[in-house]
Amino acid sequence: MKAVVVHGANDLRVDERPDPVPGMGEVLIAMEWGGVCGSDLAYWRHGSSGTAVLRSPLVLGHEVAGRIAAVGDGVTGYEVGLPVTVHPAELVGDGCLPERIAGRTNLYPRIRYFGSAAFDPHTDGGFSELRVVRADQLRPLPDGVSTEHGALAEPLAVALHAVHRAGTVRGRDVVVNGAGPIGSLVVAAAKYRGAASVVAADISDASLAVAKAMGADEVRNLAAGDTLPDDAELLFEASGAPAALGNVLRATARGGTLVQVGNLPGTAVSAVLGDLVTREITWVGAYRFVEEISDALAAMRDGLDVSPVITHRFPIEEAEEALAVAGDRSTGSSKVMLRLGGAS
């Protein structure tokens, strides 16, 4: 089978690997679509993502969907041909959490994640023609949800989790800073959860056009002289840019809430944070998701359309070009998709 493998910084290859066979409690998926994420780009560009450093070749990809190709022993309830996506997290250990964070499995300290070098040996991702998956990680796609859209259940789950962290958004005015793929999906998630209005801000007209298509009521180009709305009661920071934090905090209303969904660097940065104190802002982190991947599939079933966020498609053989396009904002890319095999 073909697989998209990063061997080191700036060393991405489409390798031939043996076809895997499902074991006890496992299912073989014939992958069809995968979405390129920022962590995939980080491994390709730097040989690391956050604190996870490549020590051996790694198959990329955690936003994937396909169809069941074979079922291992001990698995019931799944038939060959069923379209599925995958919850990419696997808890390592007993899964017990302190009572104060009971059920918040995204905060469990040891998690294997598709396409991650956090453990050695690494956890291969799903950018391959075939992938064996534990049956409990499968999430069947609802009727009417294609495998291409199913591959976006993972990033939509991240967005829905961020919205969940804000509390009730129904009837509230929302601002989203950063209109990349996650920011645009936060726009859609907030509207889906009943936000009265959503303003999206970015420095790219192409990204703002995607956010508008995903449901933003108003867009603002900060590079063209626009500013963030004043006194935003609820603001989502999706850019992950430390330089943006001062303006974002200043735009948040006194007593307001700021949800940080954009990944911030794991190293020291300079940022103006004084308004966090003087405005008594509640600054909340949002990390991955718990079971919102099932909520994401239900949202798509109910009509949430993720198609505007998809801007480019490439075959698996052109994986390096796909990552190059995804990592270059001048291309106008939002979510770049890899066709891993099969049909949608």
Automatic annotation (TrEMBL):
Any idea which UniProt keywords this protein has?
Metal-binding, Oxidoreductase, Zinc
Ranges for the Alcohol dehydrogenase-like N-terminal domain?
A: 24-143
Look up the record and name the cofactor or cofactors this protein needs.
Zn(2+)
Q: Which InterPro entries match?
A: ADH-like_C (IPR013149), ADH-like_N (IPR013154), ADH_Zn_CS (IPR002328), GroES-like_sf (IPR011032), NAD(P)-bd_dom_sf (IPR036291)
In the record, the note on similarity to other proteins reads: Belongs to the zinc-containing alcohol dehydrogenase family.
Q: Which CDD domains match?
A: idonate-5-DH
Residue spans making up a coiled coil are none
One Pfam family name from the record?
ADH_N
Entry protein name: L-idonate 5-dehydrogenase
Q: Which domain of life is it from?
A: Bacteria
Gene3D superfamilies to which the protein is assigned, alphabetical: Medium-chain alcohol dehydrogenases, catalytic domain (3.90.180.10), NAD(P)-binding Rossmann-like Domain (3.40.50.720)
Domain Alcohol dehydrogenase-like C-terminal: where? Answer: 181-299
